[in-house]
Amino acid sequence: MFSKACEYGIRATIYIAMQSLEKNRVNLKEIAAAIDSPVAFTAKILQKLVKNDIVESVKGAHGGFQIDRVHIDSIKLNQIVSAIDGDKIFKGCALGLHHCNESLPCPVHFKFKEIRDNLEQMTKETSIYELATGLEVGLTFLKR
Amino acid sequence: MFSKACEYGIRATIYIAMQSLEKNRVNLKEIAAAIDSPVAFTAKILQKLVKNDIVESVKGAHGGFQIDRVHIDSIKLNQIVSAIDGDKIFKGCALGLHHCNESLPCPVHFKFKEIRDNLEQMTKETSIYELATGLEVGLTFLKR
DNA sequence: ATTAAATAGGACAAAATTGTCCTATTAATA
DNA sequence: TATTAATAGGACAATTTTGTCCTATTTAAT
Q1: Where do the DSSP E strands lie in chain A?
Q2: CB contact under 8 A, B115 and A115
Q3: In A, which residues are within 8 Å of B107 by CB distance?
Q4: Per-residue pLDDT, B65
């Protein structure tokens, strides 16, 4: 469904949010350890998240990654997906046809439109706050 | 959502079904032309579909691919997806976690379970017949 | 029997994704 | 000011996916 990069990106963002809620800024190594991801690859993904204003980075000693308390509520899952994988999963044709649309649909167009719309709506409604707090309470996990 | 191979596989199967409904057996070149896919790559995908009893192949001159009239009703979309991409899309964790399940879920588990279940159910309910006849009537298309 | 047209399948090639390594830059602190 | 710890980013490497090419095998028709 999502690329590996996107999976890591979502996990990393949730972890950073969780730590930010506790007022902790976290660095790359800690993030990679927490979500069990390759360090250098995770660094690339974090760069992309920073450029897309999803997480904030602080350079230099005592630097790391964080998310503003206010921002944690407003970041939704779909923003991370779009930033890393683009919106093909929300908008693209299930059969890979470029010219597929409502008026000239591929054979599965309407059936898949429903699924994709549900996916998009769900990710648009799901805030990082919600995901991070589930973690805090120990109801969910991010590793393995 | 699906791999390129899977997209081609679904398009090929629908085209073969449509032609089989008209009692035409079709060969590789014709299939690739009809669905606008790379010929040799399509050949590999068709091999997989044959091994999974989704389409039938006839070797030698006047050979080609076809699907039994009866079989056209019973083949469902999910079988093609599973044959080519496996069932990761139906069963796998959205964040790529191996040990994610109902009792120890990842933060997005329940939200995605709903989407994945809908996808699986929809593909299980969608027969190739249904897709092929939409095509016949000219309501849908398979190219570009 | 020979030929021609088709699928089957192995080996290879190209492209995309995933992952690594090194250096530059930045900032805190001794 | 020098050192240390951190992100930024470019170049490279490995792996997976996508795609090609060639040969063997099968079958119909001459």
Answers
A1: 56-58, 64-66
A2: yes
A3: 14, 131-132, 134-135, 140, 142
A4: 98
Task: Report chain A's mean pLDDT, rounded to a whole number.
Answer: 96
The residue in chain A having the minimum alpha-carbon distance to the alpha carbon of residue B134 is A107
Smallest CA-to-CA distance from A46 within A72, A67, A76 is with A67
CB A3 within 8 A of CB A84: yes
Percent of the residues in chain A that have a pLDDT greater than 90, as a whole number: 92
Residue pLDDT tens, chain B, 144 long: 999 999 999 999 999 999 999 999 999 999 999 999 999 999 999 999 999 999 999 999 999 999 999 999 999 999 999 999 999 999 999 999 999 999 999 999 999 999 999 999 999 999 999 999 987 777 778 888
Give the Cα separation of A117 and A104 in Å (integer): 18
SS3 B138: coil
Give the C-alpha separation, A83 to A103, whole Å: 29
Cβ-proximal residues to A98 (8 Å cutoff; 6+ apart), any chain: B144
Question: Between the CA of A40 and the C1' of D4, what is the distance in angstroms?
Answer: 20
Give residues with Cβ within 8 angstroms of A10, minimum separation 6.
A2, A77, A80, A81, B94, B95, B108
- pLDDT (0 to 100) of residue B17: 98
Q: Whose C1' is closest to the CA of A58: which nucleotide?
A: D7
User: Cβ of A6: how many Cβ atoms within 10 Å?
Assistant: 22
